[in-house]
Amino acid sequence: MGTISFHRELPKPSTSSSPTSSSTSSTSRTETVNGSHQFKIKGYSLAKGMGVGKYIASDTFMVGGYEWAIYFYPDGKSAEDNASYVSLFIALASEGTDVRALFELTLLDQSGKGHHKVHSHFGRMLESGPYTLKYRGSMWGYKRFFKRTLLETSDYLKDDCLSISCCVGVVKSHTEGPKIYSILVPPSDLGHHFGRLLESGKGADVKFEVEGEIFDAHKLVLAARSPVFRAQLFGPLKDRNTQCIRVEDMEAPVFKTLLHFIYWDALPDMEELVGSTSKCFSTHVAQHLLAAADRYALERLRLLCEAKLCEGVAINTVATTLALAEQHNCLHLKAVCLKFIALPENLKAVMQTDGFDYLKESCPGVLTELLQYVARIGEHSVIACGYGKETSLDGCDVNDRRVKPRLQ
């Protein structure tokens, strides 16, 4: 990470002017935003022979506000090398103009000896500065990254698998002006005060009964946080008995967590809440909490639950989560679940779960979308192996016409 600083002082006034003087300063900082991605290639021997210029692509990954992808050519990128070398490149996979970046491509030694093959811009002086990528599809890398005969007898290839690590450092610049104060302002503790109010029960003026358990709360707090509670407690069609409201179709721990979020604006420790470290049980609670968040129009809580469920996608719970996402219009969560289920290594196992039977019964229309994802993955695997119009991803097709290839 580099820093370039500039300091500028105003000219001193002449002796005939006022004796007062002033100066200002600013600092321009140029540094890198770094990120890395590991790309494993399984079945190397099956990828050989696909043809010169044909590639296998990694999934895209985000660094510095841009998407990137790794491209591996088992038979090389250039016809003149007659498939005697493998080629390796990193490509800009999103729209961008004159993106300046540092790169590092590493072929990992899988013997445990640490003798990795590394090509890096990092940690050394560059004569012409960072590499500049002109547009989407621009590449940096090596046509002759490794001689094939040597690679296939080396410790870089193990169990017919290669492991590649890529680091990208996108160059960013910003200018800082003078700071006129340095008072440390603590973060907001509003949620802490409301949370303590819930715990103390002082001033509570409404009760909720959930599965026989009673919860005390404050009407104004609930109304301020949820339009559904506002209508229920103060609207023209409000409940007649607001002293104790019975909540149906919800588990007591879920309602307790809902109240905790309303007052604290944060989720409690889920393992402590459920009394278990089981990931499956935590997922179960998050599923029910998402439904409760949608029921009471708590959008931030709904998104928190979506994020937690995305992190916990697993074979035995993903079908139920997909049904939930469909029922509550959680589009991002739905896409994550469909992509997970459609993977060839997951599809058969998911179809054998009870959750998949529930999905077929409750949301039959989703199965059509699932088939589309399965077909899309099959199509992408063909494209990623280079079967299609041969386009050189440094920006020209085989006829040397300028193109902007579409990176999947």
From TrEMBL:
<dbReference type="Pfam" id="PF24570">
    <property type="entry name" value="BACK_BPM_SPOP"/>
</dbReference>
<dbReference type="Pfam" id="PF00651">
    <property type="entry name" value="BTB"/>
</dbReference>
<comment type="pathway">
    <text>Protein modification; protein ubiquitination.</text>
</comment>
<comment type="function">
    <text>May act as a substrate-specific adapter of an E3 ubiquitin-protein ligase complex (CUL3-RBX1-BTB) which mediates the ubiquitination and subsequent proteasomal degradation of target proteins.</text>
</comment>
<dbReference type="Pfam" id="PF22486">
    <property type="entry name" value="MATH_2"/>
</dbReference>
<dbReference type="InterPro" id="IPR034090">
    <property type="entry name" value="BPM_C"/>
</dbReference>
<comment type="similarity">
    <text>Belongs to the Tdpoz family.</text>
</comment>
<dbReference type="GO" id="GO:0016567">
    <property type="term" value="P:protein ubiquitination"/>
</dbReference>
<feature type="region of interest" description="Disordered">
    <location>
        <begin position="1"/>
        <end position="34"/>
    </location>
</feature>
<feature type="domain" description="BTB">
    <location>
        <begin position="204"/>
        <end position="263"/>
    </location>
</feature>
<feature type="compositionally biased region" description="Low complexity">
    <location>
        <begin position="13"/>
        <end position="28"/>
    </location>
</feature>
<dbReference type="GO" id="GO:0071472">
    <property type="term" value="P:cellular response to salt stress"/>
</dbReference>
<protein>
    <submittedName>
        <fullName>BTB/POZ and MATH domain-containing protein 2-like isoform X1</fullName>
    </submittedName>
</protein>
<dbReference type="InterPro" id="IPR000210">
    <property type="entry name" value="BTB/POZ_dom"/>
</dbReference>
<feature type="compositionally biased region" description="Basic and acidic residues">
    <location>
        <begin position="1"/>
        <end position="11"/>
    </location>
</feature>
<dbReference type="InterPro" id="IPR045005">
    <property type="entry name" value="BPM1-6"/>
</dbReference>
<dbReference type="InterPro" id="IPR002083">
    <property type="entry name" value="MATH/TRAF_dom"/>
</dbReference>
<dbReference type="InterPro" id="IPR011333">
    <property type="entry name" value="SKP1/BTB/POZ_sf"/>
</dbReference>
<feature type="domain" description="MATH">
    <location>
        <begin position="34"/>
        <end position="168"/>
    </location>
</feature>
<dbReference type="InterPro" id="IPR008974">
    <property type="entry name" value="TRAF-like"/>
</dbReference>
<dbReference type="InterPro" id="IPR056423">
    <property type="entry name" value="BACK_BPM_SPOP"/>
</dbReference>
